[in-house]
Amino acid sequence: MMKTTLPVALALLLLCASPAPGQSNTGEPEIGYLYPAGARQGTVVRVLAGGQNLRDLKGVLVAGEGVKGSVVRYMGRFLRLNGEEIKALKARIAEAKERLKSGLPKEEKDGKDGAGGKGGTDPGLTNLSRHPLLGALKDLSLEELEFVEWKFLKADPRAQPNAQIGETAMIEVAVDSDALPGIRELRLLTARGLTNPVRFEVGQLPEVREPQPADPRAADTEPFELPVVLNGQITPGDADRFCFRAEQGQKLVIQAHARSLMPFLADAVPGWFQPTLAVLDARGREIAYSDDYRFDPDPVLFFEVPKTGVYKIEIQDSIFRGRDDFVYRICLGRQPFIRSLFPLGGRSGEETVALADGWNLKDAGVPLDARPGPGRIRYAAVYRDGWVSNRVPYAVDDLPEIFETEPNDAHAEARKIALPAVVNGLISKPGDKDLVLFEGRAGDRVVAEVAARRLNSPLDSLLRLTGPSGGMLAWNDDFVRKQGHVHREMGVLTHHSDSYLIATLPEDGVYCVELSDAQGQGGGDFGYRLRLGPPCCDFELVVTPSTLNLQPGRASVVRVHALRKDGFQGEIAVRFKDPPEGFDLQGAVIPSGRDQVRMTLTAPNRRFGSPVRLRMEGCARIGGLEVVREAVPSDDMMQAFLWRHLVPSQELVASVIGKGGRDRPELLVEVPVRIPLGGSARVRIKTPHIPNAKGIVLELSEGPAGISLSDVKFMPRMVSFALDAAEGAAAAGFSDNLIVQAFMEGAAEPAKGKKAAPRRVFIGVLPAVPVRIVEKQE
After folding, report:
1. How far apart are CA 17 and CA 553, in angstroms?
2. What is the pTM of this model?
3. CB 377 within 8 A of CB 395
4. Alpha carbon of 159 to those of 138, 151, 265, 332: distances in Å?
5. pLDDT at 127
6. Are 289 and 659 in contact (CB under 8 A)?
7. Which 3 state secondary structure label does DSSP give 374?
8. How far is CA 469 from CA 381, 439, 465, 503, 511, in A?
9. Partners of 337 in the beta sheet?
């Protein structure tokens, strides 16, 4: 035990139960993968969920309509068995399978049970009797027995244990026959709260799974008839093969879904599963290959069948890695596929029909939904003979729309336009460039912004702005899009190839904007939308994480990101949109000029029987008008041990677990707290009763440079502390939310003959403290 008293620890635990900001909470339940990662309309499937801290499963939460989930069984953690255990387990599995095949009831009076033999417990399995599967083999289905056999007896010896996906649960997912095709998100609910969301795809085609474990002879089995979805997992060095039968002249689309299912794997390089696809003929010769689709790591093969016969599809990782979370789905058939649209969007409120290019398209015209409303980035699809194509993005804007006219490669040929406008165009061939002219006045601020790559175009844009005398005023190649529209694939694009520039015009005259491909490429699918005009100040919001596990009446940290557009620097107030009663935000303002700020969210002082869906929004005044934007729930994911990405989720969901009924911590000072440079300010916070504060330590989490916390005083129902700002720490006017975290420090009870080891336990966070740095008063 720690030397500090247990009542103190319990009292501080009442402050909050959120993980320490910036560090992992090993008690949080997490999912690393689902397998299979999708199902056909009108089917019920058993799905394996791999993750950690998955014990005490309570249910399955699905974002989106037409899909429901339920828990089948917690299946535990993979164990490496010794020879005696392997021998005993083989015998017990054989007996359990025989019992199922013969139709015998589970409770035969022959002395047999799931972990023992006749007349008693098999010593070979004594140490495994507590495992959720190995301790009760007689209760398992044939499917579960085969999983045990695969996982414990036939596992690839090259596979390395991984704590992030070390535990397995089986769930059942039911998909309605009229469920719309597309992505859903699944979370598991445990006694400790909700897991992160993981994508699950609803499809239209018949589905099959690779044999487990993967059998290289599987490709020699009976060929599959098309269309079909192939589900599998790539293990280390694995290459999965499937046979299919096709007829001469068929135009097949072979599309792998891997990264689209699991955008980033935190401890894999380059940070995701990189599948490759190949088609082999009957003699095993490779006749088609793809390792990506344009800038997307998930490959697509467009395969026109040369002659009727049997072919093989092969999938593997490009650098021969493999793990249980290298999950894939391959859609194989004559389904429609859109390669490109033109134009890549339209004006809000105006009817727009885009021309689609691709495979197996019956009609080239695709109506775009441009009705007024939220959602600047929307998605279109083609329906043919009952099948739906891939979904492709397009943009909806409020500005007038025009189309480029060729030739416009030279200044003398360029079209002069009135600003503001959106120019729709194509870099139609390698070396092509499009020029646009506009009249400008000295002192005008002008923005040129390209939307192409985020709208599925392969264009890698390059922008140049030249003045009336022909001199270069500004240029941009790749713009890291902190500004821009938030949409489903934001955070997944790792090449920020859309260009953006903003400039002040030095003189009156005619200016020229030149757009080209930075790699000198071009073609009929290299479309773009070029926005030209004065700054259009705006913002969008992203909130992380998308899953919150709260305790009644206690604070938890959330981070809200402001994606500012065209130089907007104003203050943004954040609030809940139609929240359930009792949810509160502390520090709910993003100060002027800040791109992100941490806030605290406090749950109601009562337990909820089911997860709660929340919505947040931001409000700011721009040009004298109130502008409201809904916050997009997202998760902060890591790629290749370093790069971090905000990946949107479909819902912001909170679970409220634990006992309520106690006082909530509350700030007892006027906010923002004004801290003078070179001075200090005192903060008081009402807390639950604290009988003894010995061993309690308060610290700032990610505090700004030069700002520190000192002189902590505990009272029975209050804690106070000083916030100090060193001279030169920050400019007067700097604003932020300070997050104060609490720890219990002490020494663990030493073992006999050993020295007591120091111990530090994170307890929680106090409500966010808004502060503002001010000039010191003399």
Report:
1. 10
2. 0.89
3. yes
4. 28, 11, 16, 29
5. 61
6. no
7. coil
8. 46, 13, 12, 16, 9
9. 359
- Please report, for residues 97, 151, 474, the alpha-carbon distance to residue 101 in angstroms, rounded to integers and kept in the order given: 6, 21, 75
Q: Are 632 and 543 in contact (CB under 8 A)?
A: yes
The count of C-alpha atoms lying within 13 angstroms of the C-alpha of 702, restricted to the half-sphere facing its C-beta, is 16
Contact (Cβ atoms closer than 8 angstroms) between residue 50 and residue 167: yes
- Res. 707: pLDDT tops 70: yes
Q: Are strands 345-347 and 392-397 parallel, antiparallel or unpaired?
A: parallel
Q: CA-CA distance, 547 to 611, in Å (whole number)?
A: 10
State the Cα torsion 251-253-254-257 to the nearest 10°: 180
Q: How far is CA 319 from CA 238, 239, 268, 282, 495, in A?
A: 11, 11, 11, 26, 21
Q: What is the pLDDT of residue 33?
A: 96
Q: Taking Cα atoms as reference points, which of 405, 422, 420, 416 lies closest to residue 346?
A: 422
Q: Are 540 and 633 in contact (CB under 8 A)?
A: no
- For residue 265, the SS3 value is coil
Q: List pLDDT tens digits, range 432-491.
A: 999 999 999 999 999 999 999 999 999 999 999 999 999 999 999 988 765 344 555 556
Q: How far is CA 530 from CA 203, 225, 619, 708, in A?
A: 35, 45, 28, 47
What is 550-611 written as a DSSP string? E-TT-EEEEEEEEEEETT----EEEEESSPPTT-EEES-EE-TT-SEEEEEEE--SS--SS-
Amino acid at the residue 636: D
* Other CB atoms within 10 A of residue 394 CB: 26
**pLDDT the model gives residue 124:** 53
Neighbours of 61 (CB within 10 A): 22
User: How many other C-beta atoms lie within 10 A of the C-beta of residue 749?
Assistant: 12
Q: Are 52 and 325 in contact (CB under 8 A)?
A: no
d(CA 25, CA 765): 14
- Compute the distance between CA of residue 219 and CA of residue 282 in angstroms, rounded to an integer: 11
At 671-703, the pLDDT tens digits run: 999 999 999 999 999 988 776 778 889 999 998
Residues 6 or more apart whose CB falls under 8 angstroms from that of 325 comprise 32, 33, 50, 165, 233, 262, 265, 273
- Of the chain, the percentage scoring pLDDT greater than 70 comes to 88
Phi-psi map region of 554: left, alpha, beta (phi>0 left; psi -120 to 50 alpha): beta
Q: Which residue has the higher pLDDT, 120 or 537?
A: 537
pLDDT digits (tens, 9 = 90+) for 605-647: 887 878 999 999 999 999 999 999 999 999 998 887 777 888 9
Q: What is the largest CA-CA distance in the chain?
A: 99
